[in-house]
Design a protein that fits this description.
By secondary structure, this protein is of the alpha+beta class. The protein is built from four helices and 13 strands. Strands 1, 4, 5, 6, 7, 8, 9, 10, 11, 12 and 13 form an eleven-stranded antiparallel beta sheet that branches. It starts with a helix and ends in a 7-residue tail after the last strand.
C-alpha cells in the first residue's frame, strides 16, 4: 500500500508541476532558443524572455533565471520584472515592468535598447555578450537550458545565466598566479 501511495503521489506531482528536460548546450540549441519565431500568419514575432526583478534582483544577483513564458510572474508571484525582447536582427531591448500596479508600468531607456547580442563559445563554456555600438555592455555565462513541460503540449524554457560583468565592471576574481 505504501508503494501505491508513493507512486500515485509521484505521478500526480509530475503532472501538476510539469516535467523538466535539460537541453544540451550547443551553438545550435542556444541560437534556436534565442531566435525569433513566426506566428500562425507567418509574421515574425519578437521572442521575449522574462526574469524576476523584485528587490532589483536582475541588477544585484550574479545568477539570473530567464523564462520564455511571459506569464511566469503569475505562478511565481512577483511584482517587478525585466524583459529581454529579441528581434530578428540579433538585438535585445531591456524593458523594466512593474506589474502590481493598474495599469502595469513599463520603461525602456535608450542605453538599454537595441543592444546587439552574440553567443561565443570559449574555454568549454557558452557566453552571451550584449553590446551597444562598440562598447561591451554585459557578459553572461550560459549555465543551463531546461525545457519545462506543463499542461497538454505547452512548454517553456528556463535559461540560467551567471553575470560576469556589467558595464565593463568585472565580477570575476583576478588571477593571482
Amino acid at each position: 500500500m505504501k508503494h501505491l501511495i508513493f507512486i500515485t503521489s509521484f505521478l500526480f506531482s509530475s503532472l501538476l508541476f510539469g516535467q523538466i528536460d535539460n537541453i544540451s548546450l550547443s551553438n545550435k540549441s542556444i541560437k534556436n532558443i534565442l531566435k525569433t519565431k513566426k506566428n500562425d500568419l507567418g509574421e515574425l514575432i519578437n521572442e521575449s524572455w522574462t526574469t524576476k526583478n523584485d528587490d532589483s534582483l536582475y541588477f544585484s544577483s550574479d545568477t539570473i533565471y530567464f523564462y520564455n513564458n511571459y506569464y511566469m510572474y503569475l505562478s511565481e508571484n512577483w511584482c517587478n520584472e525585466i524583459n529581454w525582447n529579441l528581434d530578428n536582427k540579433n538585438k535585445i531591448t531591456i524593458i523594466e515592468t512593474i506589474l502590481c500596479h493598474e495599469p502595469p508600468i513599463s520603461t525602456i531607456s535608450f542605453e538599454k535598447s537595441n543592444l546587439k547580442f552574440k553567443i561565443v563559445f570559449d574555454n568549454r563554456s557558452f557566453f552571451l555578450f550584449l553590446n551597444k555600438g562598440l562598447n561591451e555592455y554585459s557578459k553572461f555565462e550560459i549555465i543551463s537550458l531546461e525545457k519545462i513541460k506543463i499542461e497538454g503540449k505547452n512548454e517553456y524554457v528556463k535559461m540560467t545565466l551567471v553575470r560576469k560583468y556589467e558595464l565593463g565592471i568585472y565580477m570575476e576574481l583576478p588571477d593571482l598566479h
